[in-house]
Amino acid sequence: MSNSSERGTWASRSTFILAAIGSAVGLGNAWRFPGLVAKHGGGAFLLAYLLAMFALGIPLLMMEVSIGRKMRAGAPNALRGLNKKFEFIGWAATANATVIVIYYAVVFAWVILMAVFSFKFAPLTGNTEAASGLWAELIKTTWDVTGFGTISWKVVGCLVVAWGLMYLSIRKGTHSVGKVVKFTVLLPVVCLLAMAVKGVTMPGAMAGVKALFVPDFSALANASLWIDAVGQVFYSMSVMMAIMFAYGSFLKRDSNIAEDCLIIAFSDMAVSVLSGIVLFTTMYGSGMTTADMSASGIGTAFVIYPMTIVTLTNSGVFNSIFAFVFYFCLCTLAIDSAFSIVEGVSAAVSDKFKFNKHKTTLVICIVCGIISLFFTTGAGLGWLDIVDNWCNSFSLVLVGVLESIAIGWGFSTDKVLGEINLNTKKFRMPAWWFKPSVKFISPAALAAFFVWNVVTLIMGGGVYGGYTLASNIIGGWGIFALVLLSGFIVKGIAKLREKRDPSYTQDTPSWDEMD
Predict the structure, then answer these.
(1) How many C-beta atoms surround the C-beta of residue 185 within 10 A?
(2) Confidence (pLDDT) at 307
(3) Which of 11, 81, 20 is nearest to 511 (CA)?
């Protein structure tokens, strides 16, 4: 590729591992995972999650990182190098990731807001009703998709800070990312460990530990448990979002993908379990149970957990300090995931159109930042819920189906496996594990996941969440169609540029020609 010689590389093996862990470990680990554990019989969900991690998560992570390293390109160009027909899949992943980071930045801003205003918990000791409404009071938004009237300038300010932090983290590519992740990946672990120690020392905490780890085996017969386990692994590992292609493209040829990806996957799982310990022990120690939990991440973090915080102790000062630590922890979890998405998008665009990488990143942050202001309006929460549902339940899952079929059936799992094991010594990814996963298990499981979501939508009357049909069409199916058509739109733009600029040609890397 024309830009391969200029492409940045990770400063060290540990930098790549930390960056990838930071991308994989996000807000979903801290709030969605514990909620799903509570929903599906504690340890039973942990077992299903572990099986899904081995069957799908680890092989797909290795697949994307290895292809990115081999092709030295972001998702669209990397897949184009395998087969020109696959490029649109890479753009679908990139387009969907772009939509996700636009609203994810707003959630990041909410977390910053809660950390900044954590002192408001001090006078609410024991008042769970007031605590549950604190977040809604601060963000001044509702689930009403037509109520655009109000806007929270506090959220706007935090949103500007969120985008500023994301840009500063990746403005110099791998160099600046390497510096940031040394702190942002380790800090939340320290915070979670401190909160876990506090949690397990609370009266009743052991009941929470039991609820987390002791399985209700009857729950394994529930199809929704397996669907949720596959979904959690899929979302949590940052695959099918163009990120790991980009991160893999910055690896040196002597990197050990097989071992590094195992470290990344198990770190992601460990943080999820640690987050579960924090939430379960703290809630049970405060007199609440799994019946009070929510499978919704937003409900858990911004409604249920504040109720827990104000019942921790009789000291308002201590409770507010604990609130700050908790939301600061979420901030450090959010930033790595957020800027990694921008990095994946920036790599895809700059590779395709041969733009300056740094300027591309700045433009993406500015444009996406302006669009994200939409979600700070009074109707923002409802629209965010709709867009989030379609991006994760439909677009992301379909990209996973297409990508695994393309690699498993349209390319060569042998070549990809060879790239994965290129520099392995102690551990080699075995063919019996990798090939069935990519060719059969992943496309079948993700296709089943997609169908399940479609059927659930239809059974619910064809309109998600009780929102209006118009909002479902615009924020749901409209975004879904745009994501799928993005590759063809980019193809048209590239051809138009070729006609107007004779010096521009589209790169078409070849697997066999890349060293």
Answers:
(1) 22
(2) 87
(3) 81
